[in-house]
TrEMBL record:
Domain (HTH lacI-type) ranges: 4-58
Name of the protein: LacI family transcriptional regulator
Keywords, in A-Z order: DNA-binding, Transcription, Transcription regulation
Domain of life: Bacteria
Lineage, uppermost ranks: Bacteria, Bacillati, Actinomycetota, Actinomycetes, Micrococcales
PROSITE patterns documented for this protein: HTH_LACI_1, HTH_LACI_2
Pfam family, any one: LacI
Length: 334
């Protein structure tokens, strides 16, 4: 069966092909009668517009990309859900890729998105912020999500405040030998969260100590490993309070520690992100809640605003405040 063409629609509607094209691409230029006739012809013929050709003519893809760090972490899937909602509301498709927290994978997907001529790209940087000059030179708009930036629009969370709130809470419930478990120090969020922890310990005075443990990745398996290492320590050297830089690590630690120690009496644990599993854990996890869905939603809205604005662009930066959510991993009264 021959494919229905634009000219077939025009012939049936009794209008020019230009009128049909305007109906599809610039409906504001088409009067009501012409629109009625073209719409009827499209419905009768079952015509499907060639969107690829339209995109090439218009120089737009009507799609935005999002390179997230780790699709196995519920934090990032929730982030993407918020971005997808904003894109859908504005009539854009969202193409999702995961760098697996690898800088080369991040660069690969950014190249793919550039070659696909996407209108704009959201990026949750892996270990370091990628070189985005090539995308910018090509006219592709970029917004960083979960990372501050002076060079691009960005949406992030005050992680210094988050680290401080988590650590101060442990101190307030009587913990004195503290441990911070974080990712690589070159990641800005990790530096900010541990900076907040250090500030809380400094403010508490000399009887509170803080040991830092930094790992290349932060996963449930890493949490289990650190939990086993804590159990191997003599009781007098074990931390009695832990701030984990994400919930997955905290949950992994609790899986190991809860079989041998009392949580929160012997050791209290605070996570970070407030993923769905945090509240559903056998011992509900105290955590620092990030407005994850809103982060993704606001980042996408910011990108779409940059795509549609007509005046001179000024970068905007949104910083959300985190919220400490107290549960049974640090307080029996929670």
């Amino acid at each position: 069966m021959a494919q229905t063409r634009l000219s077939d629609v025009a012939r049936l509607a009794g209008v020019s092909t230009g009128s049909v094209s305007n109906f599809l691409n610039r409906p504001d230029r088409v009067n009501a009668e012409t629109a009625r006739r073209v719409s009827g012809a499209i419905e009768r013929l079952g015509y499907v517009p060639n969107t690829t050709a339209r995109q090439l003519r218009r120089g737009q893809s009507e799609a935005i990309g999002f390179v997230i760090t780790d699709i196995s972490n519920p934090f990032f899937t929730t982030l993407a859900t918020g971005a997808a909602q904003a894109a859908r509301e504005a009539g854009y498709a969202l193409l999702l890729a995961t760098s697996a927290d690898d800088e080369s994978g991040q660069s690969q997907y950014l190249d793919v998105f550039e070659n696909r001529n996407l209108d704009g790209v959201l990026v949750t940087p892996a270990r370091t912020t990628p070189n985005l000059d090539k995308l910018r030179a090509n006219g592709t708009k970029v917004v960083l999500v979960d990372r501050e930036s002076d060079d691009y629009c960005s949406v992030s969370v005050d992680d210094v405040a988050g680290g401080l709130a988590a650590t101060k809470h442990l101190i307030d419930v009587g913990k004195r030998r503290l441990m911070f478990v974080g990712g690589e120090r070159r990641i800005q969020q990790m530096r900010d969260r541990v900076s907040g922890s250090r500030a809380a310990v400094l403010a508490a005075g000399g009887d509170v100590t803080l040991v830092e443990e930094h790992r290349e990745t932060l996963s449930i398996d890493v949490g289990r490993e650190i939990g086993a290492e804590i159990l191997a320590l003599p009781p007098a050297r074990r931390p009695d309070g832990v701030v984990a830089a994400n919930d997955l690590v905290a949950l992994g630690m609790m899986q190991v520690l809860s079989g041998a120690l009392s949580i929160p009496d012997d050791i209290a644990i605070v996570g970070y992100d407030d993923i769905d599993f945090a509240a559903a854990s056998l011992i509900p996890l105290t955590t620092v809640r990030q407005p994850t869905r809103e982060l993704g939603y606001r980042g996408a809205r910011m990108l779409i605003a940059e795509l549609t604005e007509t005046g001179e662009h000024e970068h905007s930066h949104v910083v959300f405040q985190p919220e400490l959510v107290v549960r049974a991993s640090t307080s029996r009264s929670a």
